[in-house]
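Why should sequence recovery work at all? Because a backbone constrains its sequence more than one might expect. Tight turns favour small or flexible residues, buried strands favour hydrophobic ones, and helices have their own preferences. The token representation captures these environments compactly. In the example below, the structure is given first.
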């Protein structure tokens, strides 16, 4: 793969990685092969192959860039940039033979903690949402978030399981009481793209890891939306590689979503 002049992989390079990843996903789709990771979640061979491909490619083409992935990474002392990626978001959906799984990948400035480029790619639908440092696109066409301005009637992806932090079960009940339609389809990254193109109004996520969030954040903001942690604070991707969940929305309902989350912590 060709390197790029800016010292970190830009959108062109990320698209090449995503295309290779998509080919691997489609080649393995439909196989009920997996092993359990230490946290009890499944890991499929496609994840391992994509992880190895991304690590190997970046080590060859961008040896000065650090890598942080769901399946491991590569430390580079003093690295100005890091690539964050989830090789296969939606593993359970993938195993069930359903669609919507994606690769999520972003490039972070280690000095500012801000995303510089990002991509979410759905290989089955052939949909790629990208952020190039200025604005967001879907397959090279500019996208825009929805104009829904109230919780009532809004469509909200909310990812939680009983063991998760921040009482998102209470948040879901409250949002439904306010008239929202809430759903949990286990497709975090894919819903980031849906928020960016206006098909979904918000995504609420309880986990601390940044693999999907750091890609969703700039893409949705580049489409006119807003991204914060669950409590309305700026998302910064520092050395610890964690955040306090996320609220990523069209911006118009964002403050109200933050208030609902805060209320449900009491």
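From this structural description, the recovered sequence reads:
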């Amino acid at each position: 793969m060709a390197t790029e002049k800016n010292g970190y992989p830009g959108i062109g390079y990320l698209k090449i990685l995503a295309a290779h990843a998509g080919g691997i996903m489609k080649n393995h789709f439909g196989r009920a092969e997996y092993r359990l990771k230490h946290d009890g979640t499944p890991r499929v061979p496609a994840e391992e192959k994509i992880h190895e491909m991304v690590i190997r490619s970046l080590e060859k083409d961008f040896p000065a860039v650090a890598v942080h992935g769901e399946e491991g990474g590569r430390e580079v002392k003093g690295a100005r940039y890091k690539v964050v990626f989830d090789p296969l978001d939606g593993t359970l959906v993938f195993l069930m033979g359903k669609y919507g799984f994606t690769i999520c990948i972003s490039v972070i400035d280690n000095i500012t903690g801000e995303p510089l480029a990002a991509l979410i790619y759905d290989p089955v639908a052939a949909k790629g949402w990208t952020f190039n440092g200025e604005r967001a696109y879907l397959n090279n066409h500019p996208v825009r978030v929805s104009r829904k301005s109230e919780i009532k009637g809004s469509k909200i992806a909310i990812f939680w399981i009983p063991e998760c932090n921040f009482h998102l079960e209470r948040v879901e009940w409250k949002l439904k009481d306010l008239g929202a339609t809430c759903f949990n389809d286990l497709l975090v990254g894919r819903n980031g793209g849906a928020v960016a193109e206006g098909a979904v109004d918000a995504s609420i996520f309880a986990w601390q890891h940044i693999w999907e969030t750091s890609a969703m954040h700039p893409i949705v903001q580049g489409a006119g939306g807003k991204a914060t942690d669950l409590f309305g604070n700026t998302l910064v991707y520092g050395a610890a590689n964690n955040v306090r969940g996320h609220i990523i929305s069209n911006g118009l309902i964002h403050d109200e979503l933050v208030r609902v989350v805060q209320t449900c912590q009491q």
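A few observations help interpret the result. The chain has seven helices and 15 strands.
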